[in-house]
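Record type: monomer structure entry
Structure origin: computed from sequence
Chain ID: A
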Amino acid sequence: MSKNQSKKWQLLTASIMMSVCTSCFTALPVWAAEYDEPLVGYVDDDLDIIGDDGNTVELDKATNTITYDFQGKDHTFTVKNEDAVSNSNKYSYVYNNVGADGSKGTLHIYQSNNLWNPWAGVNGIAASGNTIINSNLDITATSDYASVGVTVGDGAKLVINGNVKMRKDDPSNPWGIITKNVHGNIGPGGATSMDPTDVNYTGARWQPSAFSVGYTMGDITVNGNVDVAVRGTAVNVGAYNSMKGVHPYNLASINLVGNSIKIETPSDERKEDGSFKEAYYSLAAYGGTININVVDRNNNQDKSSIDNENLEAVDGNTTNLIGNVISLKRSERTDKPDVYQDGRVNIGLVTKDSTWKGVVDNAGKTQAGEVNVWLSNGAQWTHEATSRVDGLDYTHMPAYSKPSYDNFDGVSYVNKLVGGKKAANTGYIYQNSDVKLNIANYSGYNTIVYKHNNKGTEKADFIGGDTTIKHAASGSNITLATGNNNINLSDGDEVAAVLNALASKLTYEAYAKDNGGERNLNGNVIIASGLTASSITADVKGFIKFDEETGVGGYVKPQEGEQNSTEITSGLTGTASDSEYTAANIRQNDGSYNFTKSTTIDVEDGTAINAAANIKINAEDAALTLDAKQGIVTNGQNVDIEARTLYISAKEDAIVADGGKVTSLGMTNINNEDKSDNPAAKNAIKAINGAEVILGNGVIKGNVISDGSAVSINKDNLDKDGNYKTGSLEGNLAIANGGVIDLTVAGYAQKFNGSVVKTGDVATAAVGVDGKVNLTVADGAVWTGAHKNADAELNLTLSGGTWNNTGTDATLVNTLKGGKGVVKTIKYINPNGGNNEEVEIPVNGFISMAPDAGAVTVGSFGGTHIVSYDHDNAGTDVSDYKGGNFTVEKADEGSMLIAATNSKNIKTNDQDAVEAAFKALAQKIYYGNAGVDENLTGKTMISSGLTSSSISRWLGDMKFDSSNGGVGSFVGGSGINITGDYETALMKGARAATTSAMLSWRDNAANVIYRGDMLRAHMESDGIWAKTFGGKDSYNANAVDLSNSYWGAQVGYDRMYDNGWILGAAIDYQKGSSSYNYTDDDFGVIGGNSGDNKLYSVGLYASKDLGKGAHMDFAAKAGSVRSEFSVHNGIGTELSGIYRNRGYSATASLAKRIGTDKSYLEPQVQLTWAQLGGRNFAAATDSGEVLNVNQEGYNSLVGRLGLELGKTGRLGSVYARFGLAHEFSGDITGNYSAEDGGSKTTSVETKGTWAEMSLGTTLNIKPNASAYFDVSRTYGADYEHDWKFSGGLRFALDRLPKQAQEISGKAEAEQFLAGEGAAVQKNAAANVKTEAMPTIAEEEHTLNAQPAAENAHETVAAQETAVEEAPAAETTTAVEHSEPTYVETVTTYAAPEPTAADFDEMSFELAPIVVTASRAEESILKAKADMSVVGREEIEKMHMENVEEALRTVPGAQFLNYGANGLNANLSGIRLNGSKDVVILVDGVRVNDFKGSGSSGYMFAALMNNMDNIERVEVLRGSAATMYGSGAKGGVINIITRKPTEAKTVIDISRGNFGKEAYNFNTQAAKNKVSYNIYHDRSISGSTKDGSGKVWPGQSNTKSSGAKFEYRFNDANKLTVNYETIGSNYTGTDLIYGGNYVGMYDSDSITLKHDWQINDAWSNTLLYRTTKEQHSWAKPGGEDPDMIVPITGNQEYKLFSDNFQYHSDRYSMYGGIEYSKGKDNDVHKDATNTSLFLQGDWEILPHLTLSGGIRHDRPENFDSHNSISYKLGWDITENDTLYAGRSDFYIMPSLTQLYDHRFGNEKLLASEGRTTTIGYNHQFNPDNYVMFNWFETKTAVGMSMSNTTDKNDPTYGQYQNSRDGVSRGWNVQYNARLSDTLMFKFGWAHLLFNEADNFTMGYAPKDKATFGLYYDKDKFGAAFDGFYFIRDTKGLKPGVKGWPSDKYGVYNLSLNYTADKQTKFYLKVDNVFNKLWAEHTDAIWNDGAGWYSMPGRSFVLGMQYTF
């Protein structure tokens, strides 16, 4: 049977079934095809399988991509013993399964395998080529041995855009991925084996798994929901091989990002004995990264590094994990290349529905990889093992892998735990097992819940392992909670004991003074009445006090007056109004503020310190964190902060010093946690108006601005040793108006990344007018940036610092000085000195000229500095050297400048080549005072490479030629050639690192139970012991000076034997931190080099009592050493590497104690052997060069003679020991090779003799326990112990002889180890349920059984009683807010249709009612939106002729008219906030769907010219996609029509110049249930004159008619029918391009609308609208042949919507479904869109409203899209409102943009982006108010037109997509009624933009002011309005005049006279001052073209008659 025969037979059978079963057919909306053959990734093969069903498989040879199209249908692949879908690394692949309506079909993949098969043919999907799958997936994979759902290999990238399911629909057996053999493919019953030793392997496996990336690497990304159930390891990355230039975390990745990620593995599978059966993992990282709802916001593309990552959890996405997690770190003992690499797991748990049950397994502490967890917003982590831990038990590993693993150490290691932003956003950890929790880096808010037995007054009562936090970010908070069971809350002492015991479960390591004394973490302990996330309510709460020595938590009852709160939510002002600070005992009686605890001031939308008076803050032993919109604002006051550490995290400016002074001399960190890729986007310090800012050292991210002020950062800030304190800055220094900035950046690896810039667009002025920057870069710090403000003075001091000059323009540095610091010292022997004279040149600074750096000129030069250039070729021509010249105008006496380059391509063994290079290099240097003085000495230098067996170093002299402008010239013959076999600085650095590791191993060899006498004191007993030790060693020899500070620990166990022997075993760990200094023969001593050393070992030891005080001790060890180092040479090249090795050692000693019971002396002799084998390793430079090191084996033999003198007593002993030791061997030899210098061998010996001295004591603690402590140091050798301490404990486990044991039973030691709490802890460890740990069902029943008040008044009464009876010290913490009880009364009202009052009795509301912001009536001041309203009064007083006139004086509104007549009426467009994408509504009904941007001119022509029918025009600025759908980027214009209230008819006739005629007729009536409005308008215009008198020929004739009927069935139901038609014809002459144009526009529309008020809360609106329009425009006789053929349009639009509203006192909601369709009858194309949306407003607290919405658009021709919005509004007072929010926009291309025959682009993508807005409204009194709004609109994808001018280009004139547009600005408006007769309006709009965002080129205003003045008294009325326009001219061609004026005003006047009630006369004058102006131009596009002028002064005289 052929491939397709079985499928075709199935199709035939299905067809027969379908024909007889209509219900079957209707049940399947799409055809679901079934296949039993796999897809293999080749066109012919796969097309043969799926092609008969209409599916396609095509190869695009241009892109080498194979594309599958499954038509958006369901397909099933049932495949056995083969991969169901696979492909090849020869191609890229796209699998599309998207229907015409945009919906995705599903590929059902059912794969199985029953072969004895190790790995192949077991995958659902296996991708070897880059692959994109646009489909939903449903996968099951079952196998006897191995199965995988989705996998990639060969480095491929797989992206799945769709939902993925791998779960069976059987709750009892849900495993979608499963193997018959429970151990997978390795271990008992497996089908493969690495060697015979793995037969017992039952640990973690690679398969079965849902998602897997194996050793061949790759990446999997799922953008969609995931639901998988796997009986194995659900998600794993296993990149087992490293790759050069790729960080281990980037070797492989799996990224699952979706609204719902569910991963389940077996939980609680147990054996009969209660232990777990297997180890299953939900996530396992054996090399690479797993991201679960975590993304990199910086989208780092640098595979070699993770430094630029900014990982964040995805807000709103829910994660549910069941299963342990494991991540490995490559073992330091691993010598195999393919065991595993470093792994990382990132888990986002940031919604209240997110959960994780499991622990973090490991293969030993040092093998614990990185696990990062985001836990917030009520998410819950149940810290309890779901399966067997220690899954990677090394005893069950294959022999090949075994050395790389250890055993689980009982600790979950979390690298980073990110909690909630605030207490209300806390996450929860339920500590349900004795697995400890160790968190390396903690931030935010979290709650850890511990259950307890008994009363909880002892630490042992608490169930669950301890929690350790090593470091915490500023403002962090942790809460430990326990239940109130068995606790007498009325007993204060008992409560305090419980809180103290609970607090002791937490250790904050960095708090300890020896660990840095960090003060960033606040801890709380609470006794709660509920322990679920939704019910935790504190009965008692207290603070945790951490021990300064250990960091262990504790609780002490607070003292009276002590600070009682560490979380402040109101700003500090310095006045008595700071009530929260007074209540917290922070504000003192004298007005100062005293913080005794680390405190966070969190004011999200405000200012943390907003000084209203001088402020003094004392926080000497605490960290003060300011987390706010702005950190500190002085307002002219002084703010003095004395804090241990000050942290400021600000959304905007961190410090705004507006006058006054800010002082913070402690460590001050500003935005130091900002991980964005552009920290300079914000300001750290903004000092203006003569302010002064003085800060200490710290990390600052953000710009520093000094505008006429003084800023000092870390200036003259020295430590006790006289060195600069470390500090760094990432941001620019901006200076203006004589400001001063003093900045010191100091310390190795510290940096200043930024430039000196202007504060704004400041005109060029004399040097120094802008101000002065005094910059010091010291002690190894680096400045990377440029001096870009030529008007500011820069005084630069390089005091051991570096400047990487990146400036591309010429730079003037006023002064460059050396300071006291030395960055390098050049040392060499002067060959001309005759006496081997050594020359030293201390170098103060190093300046690196970037390849494109501009010239640098230094006005005054001092000290010695190196200027380094890179070069091309052989460097023999000055043009080979990259970067500008370096000029010194004047120099201090004794100054030196060294021009340096590297040895690249220079034949350094050829003197002629060297001198040619020196000659060219010298020409880069100039000295302006050459010939005047000799203050400046010049030298040239070629530096060495990595090794130097064939590399020479050269140093030459340079003089300055005064006759040639002071240019440098090499002094021929002066070159000093230091040639031959020498050791470079980088070789010395590598040698220093290996030397440190080797000597540490030698020293540690004898360090096993150093106090053997403690062991021998209990010769009759077994023993356990532990010791800790530490010290500092130094080595100074062979041109290397190193120091190593270390700490270590040992533990051991030994047994006593009857013949006098004691035998034992011990393990050992030591960690050290080294610093290296060594000499660079070019630069002298090189500092700032570092290394980290680690040592591990396991040992055996023995001691034999020889009798009569004599004894022998023996010990042997095997272990490993590791040294990770980073070293530098004189020109800044960094070399990094890791030296690893295995070691062995043995030691033997003999001693005899002589003396009495009270005193003794003891001679000693000892011999120690230590060995490390040979080892090859590679180190790499920061530029990618590799230094290969072959470190030969190291053998040491040390003999020691010693004498100990001691005195003993009942409590112990004291002793002194003296000794002499000698190293007999110990040579250290290394072979170095690199590309730049062949190879080099160095060998140094460590032989020597040294003296030792120790002092110590022993202490008998108990009969069976003793301790000791001693200190020691050594003298006289190259390697010395500067100091060393050692201390330990030993417990004797007394046991009787065997015959006595049989009689006496258990020994005392066993009773000690098995106390009362042992059973509880044992059960907790095994997760065995006890009475103290109820079942889940019992627990839920217990925790949820809360008493409820039967009605509301009982609840309120209960609350009031609780408040009255609660003790003062108790507080209540609620995670989820219960429904608050409001005291104030909230008034609600119905929302009738917005209409005017009676026409003849019109009233004016100053703060008008609007409906556009929320679709509900509200005051414009409370709408919390950027809105304007043109009301009925303005329309009447100005006699506005059309909607365009109404909008011209609206802030932020702009028109782009092509002059007058036809060009004006039909091609104009409106912009809001700079955007042409505007939604237009009439009575809330959209009228421009599918018309797109730029078509709004048609819309205004289509709208009624009879303004008498319009009540008002509302303008909403900013994105509004969630409410109004596609197109609402710039905003929304809503035209509200008037409601007929009586029978009347209005006739309006007017005439004016320019041939203007207007005839308007309107009649309306309302009676009983029926009302109607009928109108007919006609307007005529002729040729116009512009302000210069130029005539613009043209004529237009427009007619519009309409009828609106409304029928009310009852008060709750009404039906509205509306018909509108318009016809417009126009002709004219195009004076720009010539030729006559002719055009027309016709439109007809019908609207049906049903409104239903269901009840007081609910209402519904059903709407249908249809529109047909036709238009054409052509120049049949014109000069442009492209215009002879008319531009035509024939479109139809339909809109259907069903919307609902809900209103309550505190909540309102609006939502619905909308369907729109547009059809282009010219090209027979159409487009549809279906939308669902929901918008809500929630008064979460009185006066605080949260608004938000979401819209889902599903267009026919584009991907579906979700738009969101959210906004927070605060009614601060009755008169003040503040709001901030964000709203998305989404814009589908119009029919014209898609299908127009000339401009259309069917591949055009929809636009999308978002607008952020912040606004403030203030009502001064009922008669005047002001509104302000700031906005920023960012466009991810935009639409514009091609800017090519080549008409042969296929994209000429075509619509295209643009990227990354930004527009931002602000709008302000002020409205006031000045008297009963006079009203005034004023507005100002400011706009900034880039060209990607708008088709602008000068069209947009930079500023536009608008105004209106309206007068009305008795029969007379007048109005005067207008605008003033300031053009943004950026982007214009230089010298091209595009418009008549870039700044102009246009003003209009109207006069009115009411003769009687029926008759009115009016005179209107537009453009009163006859201004020549234009809004559209072609001059900027085509040379010689001009602008289209707008009409000059015009007038209209008219009469209106009403009857």
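Annotation 1: The longest strand covers residues 1084-1107.
Annotation 2: The CA atoms of residues 114 and 1595 lie 85 Å apart.
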